[in-house]
C-alpha cells in the first residue's frame, strides 16, 4: 500500500475511533505489516472436511486478528462456489460442457469475478464473463441473445447477404439460399413455411454471413418446432452447401431434456435426408435457471444435451447460500487454548496442529487426523489409536496404507515461500482430489459421513483444558 | 477508460472472437461510447413492483445491448439486498439499531461493499465494514471479539491497570477496583466469584483502561450468568466510580431474547442496589445468525434488545438468494416489439413507456400504471379505464387522487443530467417510499398484491402485436 493511501486510512480510523486513544497507537498502525506472519494451508483445490483446519496463521495477535475478516471474506464464498460447481460437475459427468453464466445475479462485478474463477476451479469449462476470461485466462463462451433475433423483422433488413464459398469462388446470396433450403426443410419436417418467423430467419442469415465458421442458433425466440428449428436448419444447410459447418444451437425455455431429444431427431432426419452426416451431431446447449434438480432430471429422462449454461443456481448457491468458515484462536504465547461452548460441534480443537489424510489399500482417503504439531507423524502400515470427533468417548484403531501430511507452509517472514499453482493446476487438483474419494463419500445425496479424528494426545490436551475452564 | 487499457481490451476480444471478423469491427469497438444513450429511471430507493420497468435505456442497439449485463449486474444484487434490509427494518421497528455485519459471508470484498451500501439504503444504521465506512461515509460500529477475551489468562497480564478519574485526579488501579466490585456483584447476584473467569475479567479491565468512555462487554465467551455478566458489571461499576459510563454489552449465542430479559433484570438490580440509575438502561446488542424468524421471535416473546448485528442472512438473502431483473427489447427503430412466450407473466410490455403511480385519498399508492410515452398523463381526480395485468380481459375504472410520474431522465447525450442524491438521501427516500404504502401492501407475510396496470391504448398495441406474431 502506498504511504499516502496508508495515511488516509489511518486518518479515517482516527476519525471513527474514540478520541481517548493514544496517538502512539495510530503511529503503530502505520508500521503494521505481515513480516512476522506464517501461514500454512492445505493446497488450494483439495477436498476438505468440516472441523479440519485448512489454514493456520501464526503471528502477533493483533496482526493475525486483523487478518481474520479478510481471510474469511476471501475464503468463504470462494470455497462455497467451487464446491457448488464441483457438485454440478459430478452430476453432469465429465464430458458435458459447463458454462458459468452468473454475472447478472452475482453480488456486483467483483462477486461475479470470484464466481467465474472458483466455478472454473470447481470443474466448469468456461465462462460468459469476458473480464474473467481476460483477467484469469478462463476460456470464454457465449451464444446469441433473444434481443438480437428480435431486432430483425424480415430479410430486407439483412445488410450483408453475400458469402463466398469456403473453398473460394464467387459470393453467393445466403439469404436466397436459406429461403430455398427452408422450403425443403419444411417439407421434411411437415411444418408450414409461413410459420417460420422471417425476422428470425434474417437474424440467422445475418449471423451466418458474419460468422460463417461459427454459426449457432438460438431456437426459442418464437416457436421452436415451427420457426426456430426450420430456420436454423435452413441456414445451416445453406452454409453447408458453401462448405461451412454450424457449431450449435441453444434452447432457453420449456422442457429442455424432452426438446433436446426432439431436436436431435430433427438434426438426424435432416442429416440423413440431405446426406449431411455431421448434421446429426450438432451440439445442443441449454440454459434457463438450471439447478441440480434440472441435471438430475436430464439424467433420469435422458437427453441429447451437450452443453449447459448455469448462472443463478451456480453463483448464489441457493441450496446453501453461505459457508460458515470460522477463524479461531487456538494458542497464545505457546499455550493452547479453548473456547468452551455447550455445543460439542462448535468446540475448537486447541493448539497448533499437523493434519494427516489417511488412505486405505484401495487408495481412497478414509479419515483426516489432527495431531499436535510436535507429535511424530503416523506411519503407513502401522496401527494407530485415535478418537473420532462425534464419539470421543471411545478409542478407535486404524491402520492407514498411506499417510499424507496436508498442510504446507505458503507464507513465511512476510513472503510467499512456496510456488503457487496456476488456475488450471488448481482445477485439475480439485478433480483429482474429488476422484480419490470413495463413491460412498462422494455421492451428493446422503453421502457416508467422512470421519475426522484427533490423536490420543490431542484428545488428552482437550480434556485437560476443558477441565481447567469448568 | 484510458487509451492503453482500451487497446488491451480490444486486443483481448480479437484473440477470443472468430478470426473471420473484419478488422473494421475492432476499430469500431475502440470508438464506442455512451454519447447516444439516454437513461430514464425511477428515483433510487423507490419501492418498485414486478413488471414495472424501473429503468429505460435508449440508444444504438449494439451499445445498449452491451450495457445489458453491466446494468443487470449492478442492479440485481443491490436491489435484492436493499429489499432484504428493508424487510429486517420493518420487522425490527424504527427504533432498533441495526448493524450490517456480512463481510465474511459476502461474495468477496466488493460483494461485501455492495452489501454494506445497499443495506444502509434499505434502512440499516451502520456497518462493521470499515472500508464501506471510509468509502461511502456509512457509520461504522463494532464490538469486542471472543479471541480478544480468550487471549487473557489472568489479571497479571493486564499491562496498563491505572486510570485517572474522569474529572481528574490521581490514577486508580482499575483491576483492584474491579476485583472489589466483583465481590459485591457476586453477592447481589448470588453467584460464586470463583466462577467468574479471570482471563475475561482481565480482558474487560484492559479494554476499559484503553476505552474508558466506550467500555463494552462481550458476555458469552464463558458462562454468561456466572462469568460474563458479573465481570462486566464489576468493571462497569468500577468505571462508574471513576465517573465513566459503559456503553453496552453483546451476546452472541444461546436464546438471545430470553437472556436479554435476564440481563436487563441484572442491570436493573445492580442499578437499584448500587444506586447507579443509568445501569438499568445499558444497551444490549445481539448477534449470531440472526434471521427474519429471529426478529419475529424477539417480537413474539418480548426482549430487551437494543441493537442487532446481522450478517449472513442479510447479505446472502437466503429466503430469496437472487433477484431476476431482466432487460428486454421493447422498441426498434421506433416500432414497438414483443417477444411471445406461453407464460403471460414473462411477456414484455411493448414500446417506450411512461409510468405513473396512482394514489388514493389517504395518500397511499394503490396502482402503478404503464402508458405509451406519447399518451397524455392521467389527471388527478379523473376516472380512467385501465387493464390490470393478470386480468387483462376486463376494463377496470379507477380515479386517482394524485398522479405521480415515476421516471426521470438521469443520463442524456453521454452525461448525467440530473443531480444524483446522496446515500443518506436515498436511504431516507426508501423509508418514505415504504411508509407511503398501505399496511396491507407493506406487510411481509402474504401482502395484498399491488396491482400494476396498462392503459387501454397500450393494451390494444399489445393485442395487435401479439396478433401479428402468431
UniProtKB/TrEMBL annotation, chains A, B:
It comes from Geospiza fortis. The keyword Ligase applies. Belongs to the NAPRTase family. One of its GO terms (cellular component) is cytosol. Residues 353-461 form the Nicotinate phosphoribosyltransferase C-terminal domain. Transiently phosphorylated on a His residue during the reaction cycle. Phosphorylation strongly increases the affinity for substrates and increases the rate of nicotinate D-ribonucleotide production. Dephosphorylation regenerates the low-affinity form of the enzyme, leading to product release. Its EC number is 6.3.4.21. It comes from the Eukaryota. Catalyzes the first step in the biosynthesis of NAD from nicotinic acid, the ATP-dependent synthesis of beta-nicotinate D-ribonucleotide from nicotinate and 5-phospho-D-ribose 1-phosphate. Helps prevent cellular oxidative stress via its role in NAD biosynthesis. Keywords: Glycosyltransferase, Ligase, Magnesium, Manganese, Metal-binding, Phosphoprotein, Pyridine nucleotide biosynthesis, Transferase. GO terms for molecular function: glycosyltransferase activity; metal ion binding; nicotinate phosphoribosyltransferase activity. PANTHER family: NICOTINATE PHOSPHORIBOSYLTRANSFERASE. Its cofactor is Mg(2+); Mn(2+). GO terms for biological process: NAD+ biosynthetic process via the salvage pathway. Pathway: Cofactor biosynthesis; NAD(+) biosynthesis; nicotinate D-ribonucleotide from nicotinate: step 1/1. Pfam families: NAPRTase_C (PF17956), NAPRTase_N (PF17767). Gene3D superfamilies: Aldolase class I (3.20.20.70), nicotinate phosphoribosyltransferase (3.20.140.10). This is Nicotinate phosphoribosyltransferase. It catalyses: 5-phospho-alpha-D-ribose 1-diphosphate + nicotinate + ATP + H2O = nicotinate beta-D-ribonucleotide + ADP + phosphate + diphosphate. Transmembrane segments: none annotated. Residues 5-76 form the Nicotinate phosphoribosyltransferase N-terminal domain. InterPro entries: Aldolase_TIM, NAPRTase_C, NAPRTase_N, Nic_PRibTrfase-Fam, Nic_PRibTrfase_pncB, Nicotinate_pribotase-like_C. The keyword Ligase applies.
Amino acid at each position: 500500500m502506498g504511504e499516502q493511501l496508508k495515511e488516509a486510512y489511518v486518518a479515517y480510523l482516527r476519525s471513527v475511533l474514540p478520541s481517548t486513544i493514544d496517538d502512539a497507537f495510530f503511529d503503530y498502525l502505520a508500521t503494521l505489516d505481515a513480516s512476522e506472519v506464517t501461514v500454512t494451508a492445505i493446497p488450494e483445490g483439495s477436498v476438505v472436511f468440516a472441523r479440519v483446519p485448512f489454514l493456520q496463521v501464526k503471528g502477533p495477535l493483533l496482526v493475525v486478528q486483523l487478518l481474520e475478516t479478510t481471510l474469511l471474506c476471501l475464503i468463504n464464498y470462494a470455497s462455497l462456489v467451487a464446491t457448488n460447481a464441483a457438485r454440478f460437475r459430478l452430476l453432469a459427468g465429465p464430458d458435458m460442457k459447463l458454462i458459468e453464466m452468473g454475472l447478472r445475479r452475482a453480488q456486483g462485478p467483483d462477486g461475479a469475478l470470484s464466481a467465474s474463477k472458483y466455478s472454473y476451479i470447481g470443474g466448469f469449462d468456461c465462462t460468459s464473463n469476458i473480464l474473467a476470461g481476460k483477467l484469469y485466462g478462463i476460456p470464454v463462451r457465449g451464444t446469441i441473445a433473444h434481443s438480437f433475433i428480435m431486432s430483425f423483422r424480415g430479410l430486407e433488413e439483412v445488410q450483408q447477404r453475400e458469402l463466398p464459398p469456403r473453398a473460394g469462388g464467387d459470393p453467393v446470396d445466403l439469404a436466397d439460399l436459406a429461403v430455398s433450403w427452408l422450403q425443403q426443410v419444411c417439407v421434411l419436417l411437415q411444418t408450414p413455411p409461413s410459420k417460420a418467423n422471417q425476422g428470425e430467419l434474417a437474424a440467422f442469415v445475418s449471423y451466418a454471413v458474419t460468422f460463417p465458421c461459427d454459426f449457432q442458433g438460438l431456437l426459442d425466440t418464437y416457436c421452436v418446432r415451427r420457426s426456430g428449428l426450420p430456420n436454423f436448419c435452413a441456414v445451416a444447410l445453406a452454409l453447408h452447401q458453401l462448405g461451412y459447418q454450424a457449431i450449435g444451437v441453444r434452447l432457453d425455455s420449456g422442457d429442455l431434456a424432452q426438446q433436446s431429444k426432439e431436436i436431435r431427431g430433427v438434426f438426424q432426419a435432416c442429416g440423413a435426408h440431405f446426406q449431411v452426416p455431421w448434421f446429426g451431431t450438432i451440439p445442443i446447449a441449454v440454459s434457463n435457471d438450471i439447478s441440480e434438480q434440472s441435471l438430475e432430471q436430464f439424467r433420469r429422462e435422458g437427453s441429447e444435451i451437450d452443453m449447459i449454461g448455469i448462472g443463478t443456481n451456480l453463483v448464489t448457491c441457493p441450496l446453501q447460500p453461505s459457508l460458515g468458515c470460522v477463524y479461531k484462536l487456538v494458542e497464545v504465547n505457546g499455550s493452547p487454548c479453548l473456547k468452551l461452548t455447550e455445543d460439542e460441534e462448535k468446540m475448537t480443537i486447541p493448539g497448533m496442529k499437523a493434519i494427516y489424510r489417511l488412505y486405505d489399500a484401495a487408495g481412497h482417503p478414509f479419515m483426516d487426523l489432527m495431531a499436535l504439531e510436535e507429535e511424530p507423524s503416523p506411519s503407513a502400515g502401522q496401527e494407530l489409536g485415535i478418537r473420532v470427533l462425534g464419539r470421543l468417548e471411545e478409542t478407535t484403531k486404524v491402520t492407514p496404507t498411506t499417510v499424507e501430511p496436508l498442510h504446507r507452509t505458503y507464507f513465511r517472514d512476510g513472503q510467499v515461500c512456496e510456488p503457487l499453482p496456476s488456475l488450471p493446476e488448481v482445477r485439475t487438483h480439485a478433480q483429482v482430489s474429488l476422484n480419490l474419494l470413495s463413491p460412498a463419500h462422494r455421492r451428493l445425496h446422503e453421502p457416508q459421513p467422512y470421519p475426522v479424528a484427533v490423536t490420543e494426545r490431542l484428545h488428552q490436551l482437550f480434556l485437560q483444558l476443558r477441565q481447567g475452564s469448568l
